[in-house]
Specification:
The protein has helices at 16-19, 30-34, 68-76, 89-98, 143-150, 154-163, and strands spanning 2-9, 53-57, 79-84, 102-104, 117-121, 126-129, 135-137. By secondary structure, the protein is α/β, with parallel strands linked by helices. A 7-stranded mixed sheet has the order 4-3-2-1-5-6-7. A hairpin with a 5-residue loop joins strand 6 and strand 7. The chain is globular and about 45 Å long.
Length: 165
């Protein structure tokens, strides 16, 4: 699975309250959630990425509250993948569970500028900056988790598995 889109560069310690402010946790519709994604740091975030985006972030992306809403809002806003120097454990699980690829790549911030065209090969663990030609690596996503992503998240994956029983 390869994802390709324009990079949106963020710094360290982007927490779930920044990704989706807590006052919107009563919302459950992804279309409504996307309107509030990253609104404190980038008003209109969702409208900026018609062709999708790859978030490239620093250390500890997704720290804070263990809310699925943050990952859902990013995916609904057109984020195709999150690449960070490090990911908060719970955000990583929530992202995979809702079908949003997320990988770690130490040193990635130095290799990508905001707006660069990047691709992430999730099977091979390769990140390529098409704007500069730079490459980086990440751990490939294990096959069982790739299947969850390909199925659209854990709920759809389990429905698919159950249908074959």
């Amino acid at each position: 699975m390869i994802v390709k889109a324009k990079a949106v560069k963020l710094g360290d310690n982007v927490d779930t309250d920044v990704i989706l402010p807590g006052k919107y946790l009563a919302l459950t519709n992804p279309t409504e959630l996307k309107e509030h994604a990253m609104e404190g740091v980038s008003p209109g975030f969702a409208s900026k990425f018609v062709d999708g985006a790859v978030i490239v972030a620093g250390e500890n992306f997704g720290q804070g509250s263990s809310r699925e809403h943050a990952a859902i809002a990013l995916k609904a806003a057109g984020v195709k993948c999150v690449v960070a120097e490090s990911l908060a454990r719970i955000f990583y699980r929530n992202a995979i569970n809702i079908g949003l690829p997320a990988v770690e790549s130490p040193g990635i911030l130095a290799q990508v500028a905001d707006g660069d065209q990047v691709s992430v090969d999730l099977d091979q663990g390769q990140i390529r900056n098409h704007t500069t030609g730079a490459t980086a690596s990440t751990e490939p996503i294990p096959p069982h988790l790739l299947q969850v992503l390909n199925d659209g998240g854990i709920i759809e994956h389990l429905k698919k598995k159950r249908a074959h029983l």
